[in-house]
Design brief:
Elements (H helix, E strand, L loop, with lengths): L2 H8 L3 H4 L4 H10 L5 E5 L12 E5 L3 H5 L8 E2 L13 E7 L8 H11 E9 L8 H6 L2 H5 L6 H8 L2 E4 L2 E2 L20 H5 L2 H6 L1 H17 L1 H5 L8 E2 L3 E5 L1
Amino acid sequence: MPSSQLYDAIGVTYGVTRRTDRRIAAQIWTALGDARTVLNVGAGSGSYEPPDRQVLAVEPSAVMRAQRPADAAPCIAATAESLPFVDRAFDAAMAVATTHHWRDPIAGLCELRRVAARVVVFTFDIDGLSQFWLTRDYLPELADLVAGHPSLAEQAQALGARVVPVPIPWDCVDGFPEAHWRRPEAYLDDNVRRGMSIWARLGPEVERRAVRSLRRDLASGHWEARNRSLIKLDAADLGLRLLIA
């Protein structure tokens, strides 16, 4: 299913559950450097768009575009792989938690590189999925789901980018899948899960099994025993990365 159709179907709560976390935003905005004009590709409901710069957003899903706040940057319907702009039209281009939904991530990244002098991409390291207890213990199917996705090294090479780790704070307010790593009970909440596309992509049977197993492990103390080292951490490296070119 194309990403626009996926988010037309599941994206109705993203404006509530997927909010800008100020600590992650600080890393992204610092990476943008002195760029004054910024293109946000796969912009969704507008999280992480810098408020002090001239931003234009690109988002293929009508449902996602409709959730953008009234004071958000203007947004057009387009896809990452075919951006309707001339070369170097922007000082910088950014893409936040979106490349794994693109039909051709490498082509999309090359388009960002074409239309902007600077590129900042917030993404994840596929090889790091096993670092996170949710995917390791409850969603092993996710590895197969992303098996065809370009590796972090391939994405970095396409951009000529350096790779910077993004630690996830324990109280992260953005509802992406890794956000609640120290608050496992959050994944039992249907509203929280609806803000994460992985559940829709893995299907209801996998979701029911994972939720049932997690609920059982929380009640028995098995989750705490297995993840004791996380409980006192303020932030964790779960494979989230910035590509900066």
